[in-house]
Amino acid sequence: xxxxxxxxxxxxxxxxxxxxxxxxxxxxxxxxxxxxxxxxxxxxxxxxxxxxxxxxxxxxxxxxxxxxxxxxxxxxxxxxxxxxxxxxxxxxxxxxxxxxxxxxxxxxxxxxxxxxxxxxxxxxxxxxxxxxxxxxxxxxxxxxxxxxxxxxxxxxxxxxxxxxxxxxxxxxxxxxxxxxxxxxxxxxxxxxxxxxxxxxxxxxxxxxxxxxxxxxxxxxxxxxxxxxxxxxxxxxxxxxxxxxxxxxxxxxxxxxxxxxxxxxxxxxxxxxxxxxxxxxxxxxxxxxxxxxxxxxxxxxxxxxxxxxxxxxxxxxxxxxxxxxxxxxxxxxxxxxxxxxxxxxxxxxxxxxxxxxxxxxxxxxxxxxxxxxxxxxxxxxx
Length: 381
Hints:
Layout: E1 2-5, E2 17-21, H1 25-36, E3 41-45, H2 48-57, E4 62-66, H3 74-82, E5 92-96, H4 101-109, E6 114-117, H5 122-159, H6 161-177, H7 183-214, E7 222-226, H8 227-237, H9 239-244, E8 248-253, E9 258-262, H10 263-279, E10 286-293, E11 297-304, H11 311-314, H12 338-348, E12 353-358, E13 362-370, H13 373-380
Parallel strand pairs: 2-3, 2-4, 4-5, 5-6, 8-10
Antiparallel strand pairs: 1-12, 7-9, 10-11, 11-13, 12-13
Helix pairs in contact: 2-3, 5-7, 6-7, 8-10, 10-12
């Protein structure tokens, strides 16, 4: 059995990491003295070789690089930093006594973003470091926004077409030739339209929620939620989808359980996991939603008897940088970010997500949510 556990929502904030490279220890100490007050995470190297090793093993937001060092000088170090895809965007500020035009031009040509000449004042050094860290942060934001835009365009131009074409196609059949069909056929066609509409609704809802997360506009509003009512409501929502595919959906709860969570996010989590389970479960299969009460959290599990997830796919299924998907057992399509959105919503609700899967036997998607104060009090009694 392959098991994947993603970290919860409690992430430790990390200040900007800066690597100071100079062969003279006193110079490093001087620079560090000025920057320590700003709260940066500082790292040091006294040679180009040592600096490159650190850059390969750790992520830095900025490099302060002395030019004149024995062996590998600062220009060569900068060229090597900029030659790799992973590190090419790290800002490099040269620290040097060389102020001739040729040296300055060479530094900019190989990818340096600025020069600070020795001797320098604390105010100048701190100001230049802050400026380039802010510029790097803005560049990252723009890159993320571009990625979001590209994803939105891809989903809108590709994934939304299929359900809308189905709705339009069936609608035209009923409009032009309904008298040629018997009652059972008409009911079946209407059912297919409803399913296609439901797929479009889920996809659009996920799309809007994911966009709000990317732009920082999602609002977390926790409240006390009855788990049984929410699960029953979502199973009713997917009833037609499950019935048409002959998949049995059931739920199992251990008594009344209330959690403290954002209602809309909780709905999205359960709906995405159940529709995903139905999508990858063959006809005649089963999907079960179960809830267990722990000491401080409830564990909600969506278990299916579907095709399972290969180990190599399981490692990247919740990767926020990837949007990949595979067709369902009856070639159902999807955008690939439903599960990614689910993970983000779980983490925003102070929970964690675990996936267990066996190829050919099925998968279990588990997530936790905090119990309400009332439920915790009843447990203590």
